[in-house]
């Protein structure tokens, strides 16, 4: 079977370093690996509207921001189809049919949706569209027959839900849909990078982000204000790594060669952690190291973005072309789905013949 990638992001803000380690970095590697027949990258504007109905303009404004972030990270429109969800109306049709295959109780059990409902104070009145977005996500994935979905840890329940829908559909109707697999980042820090406040996952909706497009100064200020270990008051105090955001970020970003370049007194991250835990290593020194590591990662991204910003119409052209391409693929899947469901009446000569026979000679 051909290996196909689909993944995406909600245009609710610029992309942040959580997206980068959670999914973007991996996507670019996969796109360049030559192992995948197609890579589809979706800007999920329709999904973003499900919880931003008070502010649709935010979604509209952020489409270009997400597209710029994508390409500055190295997603290449020559290798990946970048498209806008709302432009593929076939996805809505698929969602409508998949809804018959899922119970309300099943949706209520989804732990990610549960915590997102809480986070958005939706307990009293959840928009139906928001409640059912895991079904719409199943449409996004299956429309492209994706085998592989590179995502952060919060997306696992969505992939599971998709697999169930695929299984049910293929059992009830005919085996036309493909069961996808999530591809999670290698370590825990990357699966769910916390915000700089150390409280929750870094999320556009929570304002605790380091954005890929932040200036070098902003990144430095944010890192220097980062949550560490509240009990580590004096340099000589033993420090704790658990819940220490600076070390979580080092787990996500730091590589061996960073030590040679910026902190040659230590062989590797284990040695740095051991010193911190023992006592005698100050937060400022660790933060300065993290700043060097992150600036090295972010600078080329920032520079490429500046170049791309010079020709915005060209970026919209890429999105238009990608959306046209994506639509063709989704239309093909939808036709197969409708045919499997036998709701293709006018193409079914046998049905018309049988119905005629029923009335013959009456
Ligand atoms: P929103 O607050 O609007 O939901 P978000 O910041 O959660 O925005 P999404 O567009 O929902 O971003 O997520 C896009 C992708 O990035 C998903 O694959 C998700 O798992 C991943 N992702 C988002 N935040 C993080 C994070 N903090 N750490 C790792 N991966 C993340
Ligand atoms: Mg999210």
From TrEMBL:
The keyword Aminoacyl-tRNA synthetase applies. One of its GO terms (biological process) is tryptophanyl-tRNA aminoacylation. GO terms for cellular component: cytosol. It catalyses: tRNA(Trp) + L-tryptophan + ATP = L-tryptophyl-tRNA(Trp) + AMP + diphosphate + H(+). GO terms for molecular function: ATP binding; tryptophan-tRNA ligase activity. Keywords: Aminoacyl-tRNA synthetase, ATP-binding, Ligase, Nucleotide-binding, Protein biosynthesis. Pfam families: tRNA-synt_1b (PF00579). InterPro entries: aa-tRNA-synth_I_CS, aa-tRNA-synth_Ic, Rossmann-like_a/b/a_fold, Trp-tRNA-ligase, Trp-tRNA_synthetase. Gene3D superfamilies: HUPs, Tyrosyl-Transfer RNA Synthetase. Its EC number is 6.1.1.2. CDD domains: TrpRS_core. Belongs to the class-I aminoacyl-tRNA synthetase family. This is Tryptophan--tRNA ligase. The lineage of its organism: Bacteria, Bacillati, Bacillota, Clostridia, Lachnospirales.
């Amino acid at each position: 079977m051909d290996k196909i990638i689909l993944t995406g992001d909600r245009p609710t803000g610029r992309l942040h370093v959580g997206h980068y380690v959670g999914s973007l970095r991996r996507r670019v590697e996969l796109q360049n690996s030559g192992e995948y027949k197609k890579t589809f990258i979706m800007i999920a504007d329709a999904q973003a509207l499900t919880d931003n109905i008070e502010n649709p303009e935010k979604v509209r404004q952020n489409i270009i921001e997400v597209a710029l972030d994508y390409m500055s990270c190295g997603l290449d429109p020559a290798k990946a189809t970048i498209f806008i969800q709302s432009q593929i109306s076939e996805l809505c049709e698929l969602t409508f049919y998949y809804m018959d295959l899922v119970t309300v109780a099943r949706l209520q059990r989804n732990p990610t949706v549960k915590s997102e409902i809480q986070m958005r104070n939706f307990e009293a009145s959840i928009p139906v569209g928001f409640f059912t977005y895991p079904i719409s996500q199943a449409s996004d994935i299956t429309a492209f027959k994706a085998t592989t979905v590179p995502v952060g840890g919060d997306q696992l329940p969505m992939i599971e839900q998709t697999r169930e829908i695929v299984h049910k559909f293929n059992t009830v109707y005919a085996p036309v849909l493909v069961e996808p697999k999530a591809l999670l980042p290698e370590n825990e820090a990357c699966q769910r990078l916390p915000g700089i406040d150390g409280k929750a996952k870094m999320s556009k909706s929570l304002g605790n982000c380091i954005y890929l497009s932040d200036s070098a100064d902003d990144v430095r200020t944010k890192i220097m204000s980062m949550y560490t270990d509240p009990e580590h008051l004096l340099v000589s105090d033993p420090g704790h790594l658990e819940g220490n955001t600076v070390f979580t970020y080092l787990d996500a970003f730091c590589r061996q060669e960073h030590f040679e370049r910026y902190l040659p007194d230590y062989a590797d991250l284990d040695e740095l952690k051991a010193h911190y835990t023992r006592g005698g290593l100050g937060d400022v020194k660790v933060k300065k190291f993290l700043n060097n590591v992150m600036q090295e990662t972010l600078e080329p991204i920032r520079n490429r973005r500046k170049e791309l910003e010079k020709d915005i119409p060209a970026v919209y052209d890429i999105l238009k072309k990608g959306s046209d391409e994506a639509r063709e693929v989704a239309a093909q899947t939808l036709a197969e789905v409708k045919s499997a469901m036998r709701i293709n009446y006018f193409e079914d000569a046998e049905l018309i013949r049988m119905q005629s026979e029923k009335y013959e000679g009456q």
